[in-house]
Structures are given as structure tokens and as C-alpha cells.
Write a structure and sequence with these properties.
This protein is mainly alpha-helical and 284 residues long. Helices cover 57% and strands 4% of the residues.
Length: 284
């Protein structure tokens, strides 16, 4: 059953990456300068795969092993493409922040998901990565034609793997687990390094939607060393409602904490008092 479910989310994953490849930021901040032809080919070939993905998923669900193997290859290549497009988007965000005069305001205490600042090095490195992705997709399309998958209409709305009201790692195909390994290690080391400090440490993770910020936070939250280090771990999705008393009440209730006090803030204070705790405010 789990194997079937894994193949059935591939279409939504490809659709999500196709939308990321069409992001206006990539053109607005010219992060794919010199790679415009490859960019257009990538978008077109992702659409070619999407045209037949419903047929492939139906055949995989009917236990056709070739279709299942092809979908697994699509999943792996799509993850690679997702990582490459993330790097383009991070560079676009860096340029946007610099243009708006906000880059220096981010500060050293912000976890910045940005790549190198050298445009020539960035362009050379990314052109090679993009060419490798396109070669992988060419192989997929050849196999797609060999299997004679047909066009079928199907629901291909992107699945939001990353936004949930709990800290469990719910991404069934681990979109960010490997690509965020270094950032995860850096943050875990910084949190563990504060063990002897009596001061409150706040580490914002910044970036626009879709950059795997929540998944990075989930990976940190569930790290074995973090579990061992913190006596109490709390998670709450803030979203648009940032009223302090209401938020404090939700932190206590949604994490199953028992607390006494005359107000929500008193209850939260009593929950964390005398403990080493980690509090994640997601989707601020």
C-alpha cells in the first residue's frame, strides 16, 4: 500500500516543480542568464511528463512493474530538479534583498538559505547542474515513449507537503532531507552550543514560501541530539493570528501540556519554567 501511495504523489510533485520553474523571480532577477534556452526546454519537458503522468500512475496502481520503475525514476529526477530550482530561487531572493537594501539587515543570527554571491561562479556551477537535469529528463522521455504512456486528464494540483500543524516529518518523499543536511547541522550545533547560556536564543529562518523552511525546522526538531538535549519541545503554527494570549493558549493546548495559572501566559510560563525548551513558531 505504501509503495502505491508513493507512486501516486509523483504527478503532484512534478506539477509543483513545474510551477517553481515558471516563477517570475527567475526572470525578474536574471538568475538564469545565459541559460534561457535550457530553462525553456526544462519547462516544456516537465509539461511533456505531466501529460502522461496520470496514465503512468494508473498503470503503476495496476501493478505494472515497468510503470512503477519509471515513476520512481521520475520522482528521483524531480527531486534533483527541485533542488536545482531552489538554488536559482535562493539566488533570486538574495538579489531581491540586496536591491531593496535589506540584505545587511538580515544579520548573523538569521538562518539564510542563500548560495554563493559570485555571479560568474554561480552561473558556471548552475549551468552544469541544469544540463545534467535535462539529460536525465531526456532519458525519462525516451522511456516514456517506449512505454507508450497516453495523455489522460487527471487532478494535478500540487500537494503542500510542508505546511502542517504538527512537527512530524510528513513529507512522504523527503524533499528537503538531503538538500538541507548542512543547514540542519549548522542550526543543531548552534542550539546545542547554547546549553550553558541563560539567555533566550531566537533563530529566525527566512525566505519566501516554498523554500522548505518548515521541513528544515521539522528536521531540526526531530533530530536525536535535539530530543535528548531539550527537556521540552513545543511546536505551533502561527499563520495570520498572532494575538499573544491566544497564541500562548494554543502552545499549551496543542502540545498536550497540563498547566495551571490564571491566564494563558501564566500557564505557558508554568509549563516551561525551570526547563530547557525549544519552541518552534511555524508560518509566522
Amino acid at each position: 500500500m505504501a509503495e502505491v501511495l508513493a507512486t501516486m504523489v509523483v504527478g503532484s510533485l512534478v506539477s509543483m516543480v513545474k510551477d517553481k520553474a515558471s516563477s517570475y523571480l527567475l526572470d525578474q532577477y536574471k538568475v538564469m542568464e545565459g541559460m534561457e534556452k535550457e530553462h525553456e526546454v526544462l519547462k516544456r519537458k516537465l509539461l511533456n511528463i505531466l501529460d502522461v503522468i496520470t496514465d503512468a500512475e494508473e498503470q503503476a496502481a495496476a501493478k505494472r512493474e515497468g510503470a512503477k520503475a519509471w515513476l520512481e525514476k521520475v520522482r528521483k529526477v524531480t527531486h534533483q530538479a527541485n533542488d536545482v530550482l531552489d538554488e536559482f530561487k535562493y539566488e533570486a531572493l538574495r538579489r531581491k534583498a540586496k536591491e531593496e537594501g535589506r540584505y545587511k539587515d538580515l544579520g548573523m543570527d538569521v538562518i539564510k538559505l542563500f548560495p554563493t554571491h559570485n555571479r560568474i561562479v554561480f552561473r558556471y556551477k548552475m549551468a552544469n547542474k541544469l544540463r545534467m537535469i535535462l539529460q536525465e529528463i531526456d532519458d525519462l522521455i525516451k522511456e516514456m515513449n517506449d512505454f507508450r504512456f497516453r495523455f489522460k486528464l487527471g487532478p494535478l494540483e500540487p500537494i503542500n507537503y510542508l505546511r502542517q500543524n504538527n512537527p512530524d516529518i510528513i513529507d512522504p518523499v523527503n524533499i528537503a532531507k538531503e538538500s538541507r543536511a548542512q543547514e540542519k547541522k549548522d542550526v543543531v550545533d548552534r542550539l546545542l552550543g547554547q546549553a550553558s547560556s541563560p539567555d533566550l536564543t531566537v533563530l529566525p529562518i527566512v525566505g519566501m514560501g516554498g523554500l522548505s523552511k518548515t521541513t528544515l525546522a521539522q528536521l531540526i526538531y526531530n533530530d536525536p541530539e535535539i530530543r535528548k538535549h531539550f527537556q521540552l519541545r513545543l511546536w505551533v503554527c502561527v499563520s495570520d493570528n498572532f494575538e499573544v494570549d491566544s497564541l500562548a493558549d494554543r502552545i499549551v493546548k496543542e502540545n498536550g501540556c497540563e498547566a495551571s495559572g490564571s491566564s494563558a501566559l501564566d500557564k505557558l510560563h508554568n509549563v516551561v519554567k525551570g526547563k530547557r525548551y525549544l519552541l518552534v513558531l511555524d508560518d509566522v
